[in-house]
């Protein structure tokens, strides 16, 4: 997927490494990577839309559609949704990745005493 305004906030490395270790042809892995990108993208857009007043949705979606890589998108969210939107995107992105890994069957190492 292309560079997006939130890429520096959502670290997908763990899910990419997990997909790379899966058995199967590269074409299936590439399709899975694309699905993961789409799930995360939809999740981040949903979060942003929930934070914005409905009257601001159209402008936000136009910004994302016209220049999804542009930092102005985050600036718009800071100005019209929440000044801490980066932290919220980072937290939500981490949650999405955790859920994706769980859906893929990734087993996290449990902590001692758990």
- Looking at how many chains there are and whether they match, the oligomeric state comes to single chain
Structural class: mainly alpha
> What is the tally of beta strands?
0
If you average the pLDDT, what whole number results?
92
Beta-strand share of residues: under 5%
Report the uncertain regions: 109-114
Gyration radius, rounded: 16 Å
Residues in helix, %? 55-70%
Overall 3D form? elongated
Write the H/E string, N to C.
HHHHH
- How many helices in DSSP terms? 5
Report the end-to-end length measured between terminal Cα atoms.
37 Å
Biggest sheet, open or closed, and with what strands and sense? none
Count of discrete structural domains:
1
Which key terms come to mind for this protein?
114 residues, mainly alpha
Give a written overview of the molecule.
- The chain has 114 residues and is mostly helical.
- The chain has helices at 13-21, 26-51, 57-66, 72-80, 85-104.
- The chain is 65% helix and 0% strand.
- The radius of gyration is 16 Å and the shape is elongated.
- The model is unreliable at 109-114 (pLDDT under 50).
Please outline what is shown here:
With 114 residues, the protein is mostly helical. It has 5 helices and no strands.
